[in-house]
Each structure stands twice: as C-alpha cells, then as structure tokens.
C-alpha cells in the first residue's frame, strides 16, 4: 500500500527517540535527541520537534499513515496531554497538539510508555500469543501496561498498568509523584544506584556510578551492590504479585535498561516472587525478559497506532 509505515516517538526522561516502523515491526529509520528534562516545557518540545523533523526529511515519510507516541507518564490520552514525573517542565503539556503541528493531518495516538512497551511485547515480543500479561519497563523510571483477555488494556487515559507508582512500603520515602514507598523508588536505575551508594558501594576506577555499574559489581560478588538489586527485586515481586491477584495475569514481562542486568535482577526476583504470589491462582505466574530489546518503546508506539487504524496485530 502507499501508506504502509508508521512513525513512532518514544519520550522518556533520558532520551527522545523517533523511528519509521513497517508493518512487520521493523525499524527502518531512527532519530534521537537527549531529553532536556530540567528545562522548560517548550525546550523539551523543541527536542521532540527536532526528532520529528529528522523523520519528516526522510524520503519514506510520504508512506507514513499515522504517528504513535509513547511517553513517560502520567498521560491523558483523551486530552492529548502529558505530565511525566521525570520531566518537571511538562505538566498537562499539550503534546499531541504539538506533534500535530508538525505532522499535518496524520492521526496521532498517545499512550503511556509502559503501555507502548506492552503493545510491542504483545505484537512482536515475549507476550506474543498470551492473553493476560503484565509488561514492565524498568529504566530511569518504572512503568507498565496490561494485556487482558487478549487485548491491550490502556484504560481511559492511557495509563492502566502504571505499576511503578504502586506503593510497596506504606511509610516509605516520599516519591516525586506525591505518594510514599513507590516501586520506582526501589527499582528504577537511578534509585538502585542511589541506594547502593548510600549503603557504602563505591564505583570502580572508571568512575561509572549508574545501575549498570552496580550490576557489574553485584555480578562480581559485591555484597552491597547485590543487596541493592535484591531490594529492587523484592519491590518488583511484591507489585507483580499484587497485580496478578487483582487481574489474574499469568505472565510478567520485564524490559528496560535495568533488565539488562540479567540474572542479577531476575534470580532474586523469581525467588522473592514465591513469597508474594502465594494464592492458588497466581502460583503459576511466570517472569521473563522482554523480547523486543531497545526498540521496544518505538515498536510499541507504532503498535498502538495499529488498533486505531484497524490493522490486525
């Protein structure tokens, strides 16, 4: 067909990525800018505009049928606005209107980034063919999305499954979202590193102090680094088990940068999950790594368009 491609935006606290995606979920072209997360909202939108401008300059742009946007949340799909916890300059920011100014008459679909990654995993990844799934992205923040009864379940505003702000410690530290003891405060990459540093872990000679460095130290047997990942795993396990008890998922898929730690995260997560998923109908719950890799947000934003366009998954 003439319009057989989808444009996708993946907007997070660290990067703004864009792509052209074909009907098989293949990324044909990429564009990327760092997120000026501490700058005013217009500056952040300027980075989005640069990414869109690079995509629009591509010769394939004429084949684009729609634009999908997966953004850090909360989002409000009905109003086309976003209020990402990790982008303070965007509060009820009219992101869809800003995108439409730059893409003309093309349809624009907005979902939370966790919902986008869920759409990707259900279309092309580890949740393909499964009917009741929680997908999580554990990265700069912690997000998620749900597949229920075989269909993506974004909820009325596009935020359903936003598990990072489920409280797992009722009297815990204040979270930027306004609540206390959120999963994100334990399991996001920056918080894994922050807690390890606070407990006495020190970076190696290269000075790297992020979650990947903590994971490397844990892999080498550092007890403080290991404890930080076990704390993150426990928070994730509690939230996954709670979700399973509520909506009877039978699979949890975990992606994002922190999931790249591999068994440093997944081994304590699977072990700890047995302590929380104790009811008879959740004991069979599986936890697996995401299958769509670093392009999950982009493929998912494209996948979110497909339903709007009436194209089967």
Describe it for me?
This protein is of the alpha/beta class. It folds into 2 domains: 5-116 and 295-309, ATPase, nucleotide binding domain (Nucleotidyltransferase, domain 5, 2-Layer Sandwich); 128-290, Nucleotidyltransferase, domain 5 (2-Layer Sandwich), CATH 3.30.420. The protein is built from 9 helices and 12 strands. The protein has helices at residues 41-56, 95-103, 113-124, 184-187, 189-198, 211-219, 223-247, 263-276, 296-309, and strands spanning 5-11, 15-22, 27-34, 64-71, 75-76, 81-82, 108-112, 133-138, 142-148, 151-152, 251-255, 286-289. The strands form 3 sheets. It has a 5-stranded mixed beta sheet with strand order 3-2-1-4-7, sandwiched between helices. It has a 5-stranded mixed beta sheet with strand order 10-9-8-11-12, sandwiched between helices. Strand 5 and strand 6 form a beta hairpin. Helix 5 (189-198) crosses helix 7 (223-247). The mean pLDDT is 93.
């Amino acid at each position: 067909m003439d319009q057989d491609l989808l444009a996708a935006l993946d907007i997070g606290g660290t990067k703004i990525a864009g792509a052209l995606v074909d009907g098989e979920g293949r990324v044909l072209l990429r564009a990327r800018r760092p997120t000026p997360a501490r700058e005013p909202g217009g500056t952040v939108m300027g980075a989005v505009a640069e990414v869109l401008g690079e995509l629009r300059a591509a010769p394939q742009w004429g084949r684009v049928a729609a634009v999908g946007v997966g953004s850090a949340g909360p989002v409000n799909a009905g109003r086309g606005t976003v209020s990402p916890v990790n982008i303070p300059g965007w509060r009820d920011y009219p992101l869809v209107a800003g995108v439409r100014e730059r893409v003309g008459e093309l349809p624009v679909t907005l979902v939370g980034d966790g919902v986008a990654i869920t759409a990707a995993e259900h279309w092309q990844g580890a949740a393909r063919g499964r009917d009741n799934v929680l997908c999580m992205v554990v990265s700069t923040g912690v997000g998620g999305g749900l597949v229920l009864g075989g269909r993506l379940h974004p909820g009325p505003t596009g935020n359903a499954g936003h598990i990072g702000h489920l409280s797992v410690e009722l009297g815990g530290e204040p979270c930027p979202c306004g609540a206390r003891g959120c999963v994100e405060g334990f399991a996001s990459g920056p918080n894994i590193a922050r807690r390890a540093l606070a407990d006495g872990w020190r970076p190696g000679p290269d000075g790297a102090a992020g979650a990947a460095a903590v994971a490397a130290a844990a892999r080498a047997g550092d007890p403080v680094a290991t404890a930080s990942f076990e704390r993150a795993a426990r928070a994730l396990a509690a939230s996954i088990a709670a979700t399973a008890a509520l909506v009877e998922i039978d699979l949890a898929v975990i992606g994002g940068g922190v999931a790249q730690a591999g068994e440093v995260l997944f081994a304590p997560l699977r072990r700890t999950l047995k302590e929380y998923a104790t009811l008879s109908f959740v004991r069979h719950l599986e936890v697996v790594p995401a299958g769509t890799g670093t392009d999950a947000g982009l493929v998912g934003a494209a996948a979110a368009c497909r339903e709007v366009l009436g194209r089967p998954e």
